[in-house]
Automatic annotation (TrEMBL):
SUPFAM superfamilies: Winged helix' DNA-binding domain. InterPro entries: BlaI_family, WH-like_DNA-bd_sf, WH_DNA-bd_sf. One of its GO terms (molecular function) is DNA binding. It comes from Pedobacter psychrophilus. Keywords: DNA-binding, Transcription, Transcription regulation. Belongs to the BlaI transcriptional regulatory family. This is Transcriptional regulator. The keyword DNA-binding applies. GO terms for biological process: negative regulation of DNA-templated transcription.
Length: 125
């Protein structure tokens, strides 16, 4: 059974990136990874509770403190976000997305060549 993944806000995604990197952390450890100016402890704690409510993380209790860990993997969220991008902006067309990145000069010729080689390998399977 696939769990339903919800979209993350920019702030939530920033915290998830940290948790995916650390694998498990207390709120203070998460704050330590954030850029200066550091947000208030209560602010981060509120976002952590939201992430838990959304089903992205869970915790282990150590007395009054909690250590949080991801229950949605970075790979699962990447797949969700990519599908959303493809469906929402590129009519589910890899060609359309590839064309967009080439036009915006986000892909150079060497990268384009690598992508074409990957496509050829997939075709030959």
């Amino acid at each position: 059974m696939d769990k339903e993944i919800k979209e993350l806000t920019k702030a939530e995604e920033q915290l998830m990136q940290i948790l995916w990197d650390l694998e498990k952390a207390f709120v203070k450890e998460i704050i330590d990874q954030l850029p200066i100016p550091k947000p208030a402890y209560n602010t981060v704690s509120t976002f952590i509770r939201i992430l838990e409510t959304k089903g992205f993380i869970d915790h282990i209790a150590f007395g009054k403190s909690h250590q949080y860990y991801p229950i949605v993997s970075k790979e699962e969220y990447k797949s969700f976000a990519t599908d959303k991008l493809m469906n929402g902006y590129f009519e589910n067309s890899v060609e359309s997305m590839f064309s967009y990145f080439v036009k915006k000069e986000k892909i150079d010729l060497a990268e384009a060549d690598e992508i074409l080689k990957m496509i050829e390998k997939l075709k030959n399977k």
